[in-house]
Amino acid sequence: MPSHQKTRAQQDRPVVQPTRQDEVAAAGSELIGGPIGRWARLGDGPLTPVRVVALVAIGMFALGMVQKIPCYDWAWFRGATSQYTHACYSDIPHLFVGRGFADGLIPYFDRLDGDMEYLEYPVLTGLFMEVASWLTPGGDDLMHREQMYWMVNAAMLLICAAVMAVCVARTHRRRPWDGLLVALAPAFALTATINWDLLAVALTAAAMLMWSRGRALAFGILIGLATAAKLYPVLLLGPLLLLCWRAGKWREFGAALLGAAGAWLVVNLPVMVLAPVGWKKFYTFSQERNVDFGSFWLIITQRTGEPIEPETANTWAIVLMLLACAGIAALALTAPRRPRFAQLAFLVVAAFILTNKVYSPQYVLWLIPLAALARPRWRDFLIWQACEVMYFLGIWLYLAYTTSGNKQGLPTEGYQFAILLHLLGTLFLCAVIVRDILMPERDGVRRDGSDDPSGGVLDGAEDVFVRGRAAHPARHAAHAVEGPRVEWGVPQDEWGERDVQGEREARD
């Protein structure tokens, strides 16, 4: 059903209350007084759902900063092992000196000392790092300046974290509370200040919000800026191409593609022209980088004792990524109902992470907002987060083991197990999302008859190109189910949504 033909009843449906639909959310809410009551009215006072999500995200970010206190006080500056045993490592203070910011060098233009000739980060991230160095107080005490540089960056990243949480909370109009999945994610708190990934994550979340509002050009501009900060956001254009192809929305995809290319060029072209050698360092570094931490490639090299050359790893990583993309394309074009944008976005970024030759612990931030939009179920989300937290601890304990003379920490076999946990946790979340696509009646977001709340012009659009069983009239994805899906024998509220609290009351 086209979005302009939606009934008033669909448009006026109340905000979805997770504590009345999700057993884990309902159980967790006991800490703050229990599930929301049937007659509760939210959003009338100062604490709207979006504001609550933002405040919780800020609080979790602050807890993550507290977790870094041992390093801030001394562990960053008194040898490598201590920052690993306390699991509080951050690239930020080390790169303040190692990439020339402490000496006033200009990224991409000034050559660095040592093996790293130029800054190996994309241009927008380099600008973020440079602005933080401008705001860092000067002085002769280098240790104090490193501390202040981390604090300045943390303040700027806090803004990114709040933007990310707010955008996720607003993307699904009826599901703002899903933003709590992002705000309360343990891996978010632990990894937020390891590196500068939150800049790209916030821009990507803002782009998803713009697309959900039907603003294709703004989406493209934000994706272009995000890609200028980190490479992965450009991958979202692939799923968007497939969905727009299936729905015949070529004009909107063209606007998004034009905006992305234009924004990326505006940021990159000046540096590309004036400092071409420094500009391309990020791309050459990614190609020349050896197999590194967190990847299944590392497990292979450690188990076999045979190194994998960067060229070989690059080739096979590209082949595996292309195969994964082909599978996602087949899924998008043959699913019984057109997949939601967030579902395919999560799958393609997860595929990139799983096939890449390195997985830094902060890369989990790329997936957290997409997971909250693609599969807003607390049980599955927390299973995945538990795996990521175990990996977060595993890599630091492994580095403590390899850098300490007394071999205290996690040995190689233990670290390989941590990598497997990360891989299996991500694959698990991919599997349940694929199941939701193949069995749309099990998709919690679509339970009330919604189509794609984050899909913008795709939401409720007719399909014009389908293949396989999706082309069968009885299962045509264009005809979104009007009205709620009723599960007989299960207590439901006035909108036909599963009522967890009602089930409890019935049992009592």
UniProtKB/TrEMBL annotation:
This is Glycosyltransferase 87 family protein. It is found in: Cell membrane. It comes from Streptomyces solicathayae. Residues 488-508 are annotated as: Disordered. InterPro entries: GT87, UCP010361. Belongs to the glycosyltransferase 87 family. Keywords: Cell membrane, Membrane, Transferase, Transmembrane, Transmembrane helix. The chain crosses the membrane at residues 48-66, 148-169, 181-211, 217-243, 255-279, 315-334, 341-361, 381-402, 414-434.
